[in-house]
Each structure stands twice: as C-alpha cells, then as structure tokens.
Amino acid sequence: MLASIEVSTRISSVALLDLKTGREVAQVPLATNLESSATLLPALQTLLASQDLTAKDITAVAVALGPGSFTGIRVGIATAEGLAMPSHLPVFGISTLDGLAENLRSGGLQGEALCLIDAQRGECFVGRYLIEEEIFRETAPPFILKVERLSDFIANKAWVVGAGFLKYEKEIKTLLGDKGKWVDEIFHDPQAMSIARLAYRQWNSGLRPSLDTLKPLYLRVPSVDEKKP
Questions:
Q1: Cα distances (Å, whole numbers) of residue 35 to 75, 117, 176
Q2: The pTM of the whole model exceeds 0.85
Q3: What is the distance between the alpha carbons of residues 110 and 168, in angstroms, rounded to a whole number?
Q4: Which region, left, alpha or beta, applies to residue 66 given φ > 0 means left and ψ of -120 to 50 means alpha?
Q5: Which of 41, 68, 166, 181 has the most other CB atoms within 10 Å of its CB?
Q6: 125-172, pLDDT tens digit by residue?
Q7: φ and ψ at 93, to 5 degrees?
Q8: At residue 137, what are phi and psi to the nearest 5 degrees?
Q9: Domain 97-187 maps to which CATH number in 2.40.150.20, 3.20.20.100, 3.30.470.10, 3.30.420.40?
Q10: The listed CATH number (3.40.50.150, 3.30.420.40, 3.40.50.1980, 3.30.870.10) that belongs to domain 2-96+189-226
C-alpha cells in the first residue's frame, strides 16, 4: 500500500493507493484550522483504520516536495522519513506543481497550463506544462514570477490553476483575458491522490527511490535564512 502525503500548502490531505492494482483506495483532508504537524499523523492513522490497515501495511510512501509552505514541506518530508526509515521503504518525492498538473490531466483537461502556488510578495511559484490525455510534460523548469508578468509566458490559450490563481484571481483574469482558461474550484487544491498517481507511475516504471533522494523544492530560501549575514 502506498501512503501519500500532501501538506506543502494550506490545503492538505493524505491518501492511500494499492500498489498491486493501482486502485485509489481513499483520501481524507486535514483540518485547515490546525497545523499539519498536529493533524498529519492522526489523519493517516484514521485513514488506515478506516480500511482495516495499519502502518505495517504501508510498503511505499509518496510526499509533495513543494514549492509551498516551508513549514508544511518540512513536516511532510519528516513524516515520510519517519514512515519509511524503519523498514527502508521506497519514498517518492513529487513536485506540488506536478500534482496540480495531474489534477488537470485526471480531470480530462488537455493543452497548455500554468500551475500557480502563492509565493507571497505579489509573486507565484509557476509550473508550465503541456497536458495530454495519458501524461503531461513540463515545458520549463519551475520558477518564481510577479503576477503581472504571467501573460508573457502563455503562447496560446492556457489553463490556469492553483492557489496562486485563487489569491490573485481578479488581477489574473484581467491580465490574461481570453488567453486564460478557467477551471472549477476543485482543481485548484493540491491533492494527495494526485501525488499518489504520479508516484504509482514511477513505481510501475521500476523506480524505487531511497530516502537519500528526498530533497525539498523550495525555489526561494526560507525567510529565516535570508536574514543571515
């Protein structure tokens, strides 16, 4: 059983996926009014218990690496390490931006896409993708961009998705006009099950990544580090 963790943003969840069959077992959200450090493990334990499973039934772990909340990313990775370390389980680190692209693909939405996560300071973490029926591909490495420059990075019409869009919705719609394509609210939330699907594809391809490969995707150094001389 694959346990999947998405706590890189305020909208957090955990999910289970059966690695033998690819069946998406279940996903549950975490409470938004509490820190993920307090709710993540209880939510996972509740999810396992609802399926008559325990932590011993977990054979691999997937976790969102960011970009997003520095605290959330650290909590997610630390929890994945705690689950994987005792039995040396494979751990799949997945970009949160890739997870948003998977939201679109699994929803049947194809074409160019901008995936946006709020980076504060009037900026977004941006992922550029081409979404196809069975897969998607990244068309540029992820980067940080001022919201007012988003239109420079759309060649044609593009889906725009993510919490970064929701925060700056009015401004983005004005800037992009008919170059933007808008999606239902459900697509904007990072999903642990999308992270699980991407990890499952890697599992099927034969990958078995170790803890040594697990690195956060920050794009920007934490503010506490920015202040260091």
A1: 10, 19, 35
A2: yes
A3: 23
A4: left
A5: 68
A6: 999 999 999 999 999 999 999 999 999 988 889 999 999 999 999 999
A7: -95, 125
A8: -135, 145
A9: 3.30.420.40
A10: 3.30.420.40
